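Task 17 of the worksheet. Students: predict the tertiary structure of the chain below and write it out as structure tokens. Keep your answer in the requested format; marks are given for formatting as well as content.
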Amino acid sequence: MAKFDSVMSRCFKHRLLRSKASWFYHWFNSQFDREQLAVLAGRNAYEQNQGIGSQSSSLLRRNTHRIEKGLSMSPRRAIFAQEYILETVDCFALCIDLTQLCNEELSWAHDVLSYYFKVVKHTDVISDANLIFESAQARYTAKYITARDSVSSRAQTPKIPYTKHQLIKSDISAEQFHSLCVQRRSVRWFTDELVPDEILNQAITTAALAPSACNRQPFNFYVANETELATQVAKLAGGTVGFAENIPCTIVVVGDLSAYALERDRHLIYLDGALAAMQLMLALETLGLSSCPINWPDIEVPENKMAKLLKLESYQRPIMLIAIGYAKESGMIPYSQKKTIAVLRKDIH
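Model answer:
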């Protein structure tokens, strides 16, 4: 079968057939079936749930971020976001009644919308949206801002766009950051010391600061923080033979395709998940923990086993695994020569 597949793929190299690559994968190779099914399941879930998940709303997050970008423009337009402001306030109103939705997410959307309606020029559409928001705002205040904490809430800095000079400056130099990146190696040999949950949470909190397209953050960190379970999860990936048994903690980065209404965004789970994963590994290094990113190839049997073990929905896709633990000082680490500037940089002319 593999030989037939190879022969057919060479046939499709012909320039007249290149535009018909979908024919090849429809008739002769089913390797993209799982991704296509996951994308379709994600679209269906998005439409059915109106862009609102159990703990987070990708629609509210996306539109709130779009409004933030409009507020940050220089010069700022007098009228913007008309095309989606009604959709946004309707979503905000729905989210208020969801008990499991993240309060911080609602607070951010509330603050941005409040600021937006104060500074934007009101058209008929924006005025209608403002009326819906004011009604929702009253319910939000009654539910989330009690008499006991209203004073402290007013004292908090609103979650709205700010200028660069307001950022807290880090005292890390370029040399120090480079040293951290040199220090972070893919470690495969760990001690049997347990990984404290509070340290994992601290690293995940740092990872959550990674950039994400429209701030949707379409991923979760599935944590197996017990050696037997960590090994079981790690063994599902083909590249852990010989060292899976000594992994004390394994994290599976899982993408959520229900965050998107359109197929064009299907790759964002991999982009955003990888950005967060890299930040997670650097954070772990500063906390005394070592890590090893583990490739997750799209192979049917491991995919099915992982989905069953993690109880994943059809629109959730494993992106990668990360082995975590305290490194054995005597453990060997591959040298892994990296590509040079001369190879990596390509100037655009």
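Marker's comment: The chain has 14 helices and four strands. The chain has a mean pLDDT of 92.
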